[in-house]
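input
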Amino acid sequence: MMATKELESLPPALFKETFSHTPTSSDEFSDDIDELDDSRLPPVDGGYQAWLFLAACFMVEGIVWGFAQSFGVFENYYRTHEPFSGSTEIASIGTCAMGLAYLPTPIVIAIMFAFPRARRWFSTAGFVLMCLALGLSSFSTNVTHLIMSQGVAYGIGGCLAYTPSILFLSDWFVEKKGLAFGIVWSGSGLTGILFPLILQTLLNRYGWQTTLRACSIGLFFLAAPFMTFHKPRVPLRHSHLRQLSLRFLWDKVYLVYQLGNTMQALGFWIPSIFLTSYARTLGASDFLASLTVTLFNLMTVFGCIFTGYMADRHHVTKCILLSSAGAVLSVFLLWGLATRLATLYIFCIVYGFFAGGYSSSWSALSHEVQKSERSAHVSMVFAFLETGRGVGNV
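output
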């Protein structure tokens, strides 16, 4: 009776919140918000602080992945210039950079839960490591040095810089989470257009050593102003590592989605690798051949935003089906029958839009896994999806 009277004395709004609240990743550990009044926290899904945070995530995504995905420019240069020409291991540099930016994501997420007070500084530390790696790589005398610096060290730094976006974004956006992730993912598509042009110009004019040093300094100063806004919405002070569960790794729903995710990653990069060489077989000049990759990266920008928007409003399976069907049909009907350059350009537009937006479905996918396995934390599910994509990339 005492408990009943206490419940009846609660204000209606508080009573509704107590029994109708559906936990999200931002409040799964709300017992550790250290008695902060929620009204004093920045609003979710809007407000200038949320959009500044999203802009910071967009910039982090663009710098980390845009530069890594532009390694093909360096690879072509290294193959034709001393002291690296003739080496068969040059491709390993880009593989290490991309793979290590993806694969350790669950480990970084776990460390951030273990040391929550330090999690705001992970991005800054990651960018410092990335820029140091590029600076040190300019002193390389063989390909092994480049693999360790421009490959391994850059990849680890990129993972540290990028992973906080996954954890923090779930705090800042709830109803618009899919759209927010789509906007963030589109950052690499935009820089994937700009960085290759800039890098090619620098390499042709100043050589690889000066280019790497310029990138080391330039990327740091490009990222520095945004680090102020790349922060969690809710400050936590105590470790939650023990509360993280990996039981979802054996959940059937997760396994099915992860299998599809890894298979998509296995095939996603193949067209972009061969687009320029295929265009040259059709008689394209260097500029017209490079335009294929430009169109592909440009359309991933729109594809990411569109898929993220759809993921907020439709079941994730519909989004995945639309992305996969569009990508597969474009390969069979456009690239497979492309005997003219115009047809190849159309393929780049269609494939970039549908295949490039696939990862924007991950936020909705993570929540589907959480529905099946309640102990799963959406950020950790997201992290393992990143790992699956890294496996496909490698």
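quick obs: The CA atoms of residues 282 and 339 lie 7 Å apart.
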